[in-house]
Amino acid sequence: MNIYQRIVQDHDKHRELASRIMKTEGNSDERNELWAQFKPEATAHANAEEQTLYAELLEAQKSQEQARHSVHEHKEAVDLIKELDEMDMSSSGWIQKFEKLKEDLEHHMKEEEEDVFEIAKKVISNDLANDLVDKFEKRKKSEISEIA
Ligand SMILES: [Fe+2]
Ligand SMILES: [Fe+2]
């Protein structure tokens, strides 16, 4: 497995969790449980990406601009996650805001899979793309333990 495949694994999980959250209602157990999974997952994923893939892409001139763009989108998503976390889940505004986060993230993940990976493959060797998986895993685990 390489870092690209590993990231797509997470993306598929995030897309599924987000679709399931959209079907929940109010301050239900289901919404609470799914959000309790989604929040640390999405946040730790973004941070682990920044500490692995984007750390490499920021180093190379060819990929710097795209990397900065992605990191900026991470900040926006993390801000939305924090806002949602402080909001009353039973208010109608919660799911509206969540839908905005879902759409933003879907756009972001598609861009990573279609544009970022293509640029990364020109900048990162195959060996490094393999080695980054382990690093990603470790960073993500420690991020999750900090959030939880
Ligand atoms: Fe990302
Ligand atoms: Fe991602």
Backbone structural class: mainly alpha
Number of strands: 0
| Amino-to-carboxy terminus distance | 27 Å
Total of helices = 6
Average pLDDT score: 97
The Cα radius of gyration reads: 16 Å
Chemical compounds bound to the protein: fe (ii) ion
Q: Can you write the helix and strand succession as a string?
A: HHHHHH
Q: What proportion strand? A: under 5%
CATH hierarchy, class: Mainly Alpha
What does this 3D model show about the protein?
- The protein has a single domain (3-147), classed as nmb1532 protein domain like (Four Helix Bundle (Hemerythrin (Met), subunit A)).
- It has six helices and no strands.
- It has helices at residues 3-22, 29-51, 53-59, 61-86, 92-123, 126-147.
- Helix content is 88%, strand content 0%.
- The protein is elongated, with a radius of gyration of 16 Å.
- The chain is mainly alpha-helical and 148 residues long.
- It binds fe (ii) ion (2 copies).
- One fe (ii) ion binds at residues 46, 49, 70, 74, 108, 112.
Summarize the model shown.
The protein is mainly alpha-helical. 88% of the residues lie in helices and 0% in strands.
Helix and strand topology:
Blueprint: H1 3-22, H2 29-51, H3 53-59, H4 61-86, H5 92-123, H6 126-147
The site of one fe (ii) ion has 6 residues, from helix 2, helix 4 and helix 5.
Which properties best describe this structure?
mainly alpha; 6 helices; 0% strand; 148 residues; Four Helix Bundle (Hemerythrin (Met), subunit A); binds fe (ii) ion
